[in-house]
Amino acid sequence: MGESSHISVLNYFVTDFRDFFITSNDLTLTKALPHRYNGASIAMKNDKTGKLKNEDLPLDDLESFIPQRQAGFSILRMKIPVGKLESNQLPVLAKLAEKYGRGELHLTTRQGVEIPWISSENIPKIIKEIRKAGFTTGASGPHIRVITACPGNIVCRHGIINAQEFGRNLDAIYAGAPVPHKFKIAVAGCPNACTKPRENDIGFAGMAEPLIVPEKCITCKKCIRICKEGAIIFSENKITLDPDRCEACGDCITSCPKQALSLNRSGIAVYIGGKMGRHPVIGTKIAEFATEKSAIELLDRVLVFYRREGRPRERLADTLRRVGKREAMKEIRKPGKLPL
Ligand code: SF4
Ligand code: SF4
Ligand code: SF4
């Protein structure tokens, strides 16, 4: 493929790609949806080859160039797993934005970095440079997106689980995997849910359940002041816990000066079927106090279900609504070892 036709195909891809559904390994493009972009991209439709092989173009990278309103320009979406950047990576991003864009960077709601104003002819060059600098491009289209995670228990005083490590492990296994439509995963270190696990296709949040050790309690009532849920009650000169109100944030455990609140159990809450956007949906909690292993097993089951039942461009929330949550749960929450 010559340089000019290469660029033409790039143009075609960055303006049209997200309106297609990939159906096979050799990346046959089918099922074009009505074209929605500007005049220039409509003209580029003439360059359509219909079939592109993997070796012709780095398709994973090309998906990360989101067409701008302005013809011939794209926003490059960089992959920043769990939202963590080292200080020496920032100047690299700044340099890329200056060299190939207009010196602007945009921070996304999902902890990503985007560089706007990348012209089509610069795409091959910037892809090369990104790789050389040790970065990768972020997933787009019908794939599992970069996993988001909060700082978790490494630095946050509320953190129960190591959200960064769990998120990185998930990212290494799942990010970029094909699914019927975009699929978002978030990890939060505690029920404060800063990364919005309930508003993702699948979300994980740390949990820590307290247990009162009455003989250690000096009835200072600090835990009552700390608990935001009103789950700790003082009556008949003693402290009691209302399990129905307790959100398992663990804050009372760490605040008790006498260790009169110990850790009964900890683990991960798992939510599925949440989403943001035009029609937001709050996910359903399907497990509590799961281990990392069982949380991942649930994720696998959800993916098996979604890949089989989900229609192209249908979010998990909509698949669950169409198929019926009860029916879906039969498969996802099979009886067995999982803490369901
Ligand atoms: S979710 Fe919890 S652990 Fe994570 S940043 Fe928020 S408060 Fe901290
Ligand atoms: S903070 Fe500890 S010692 Fe004080 S009332 Fe609560 S459980 Fe008892
Ligand atoms: S774990 Fe959190 S919600 Fe539960 S009683 Fe303690 S402070 Fe309240």
Describe what you observe in this structure.
With 340 residues, the protein is α+β, with helices and mostly antiparallel strands. It folds into two domains: 3-137, Alpha-Beta Plaits (2-Layer Sandwich); 148-332, Sulfite Reductase Hemoprotein, domain 1 (2-Layer Sandwich). The protein is built from eleven helices and 14 strands. Strand 3 and strand 4 form a beta hairpin. The protein is globular. The protein starts with a helix and ends in an 8-residue tail after the last helix. Residues 150-152, 156, 158-159, 163, 188-190, 192-194 line the site of one iron/sulfur cluster.
Ligands (ions, cofactors included)? iron/sulfur cluster
Regions with pLDDT < 50 over 5+ consecutive residues? 1-57
- The tally of domains stands at 2
Q: Under the CATH scheme, which architecture of the largest domain would be assigned?
A: 2-Layer Sandwich
Assign an overall shape. Answer: globular
Taking all Cα atoms into account, the compactness measure Rg is: 24 Å
The N- to C-terminal Cα distance equals: 54 Å
Per CATH, the class of the largest domain reads Alpha Beta
β content, as a range?
A: 15-25%
Helix content: 25-40%
Strand/helix succession:
HEEHHEEHEEHEEHEEHEEHEEHHH
